[in-house]
Amino acid sequence: MFSIKRVLFVTLAASAFSVASFADDDVDAKYNKSCAVCHAAGVAGAPKTGDAEAWKPRMDKGMETLVASVTNGLNAMPPKGMCTDCSEEDYEHLIKHMAAAK
Predict the structure, then answer these.
(1) Alpha-carbon span 95 to 88, nearest angstrom
(2) What is the DSSP letter of 74?
(3) What are the 10-residue block averages of pLDDT along the chain, 102 residues in total?
(4) What CATH number should be reported for the domain holding residue 78?
């Protein structure tokens, strides 16, 4: 027989999995809508998505600095980096997504 703890654990685990899947889909959608315009091909010196070597010196600056750069704009990147409805948390997820080696 299932205990209440076991049922609760399974329910919470399933919920966490569906939230994680939604979050990945959301990051992909936001990336494709905004970041891919420049980062897919490295337009105007933007580091290419998946090029961990190009992203390393940027990641070394720290996430707070990177989010500030996106929010305020940097070089050819406009303020908010083409994602006007993104939160700071969204930017963090997008940066990690682009910096991950492919």
Answers:
(1) 11
(2) B
(3) 46 39 77 96 96 98 98 96 95 97 90
(4) 1.10.760.10
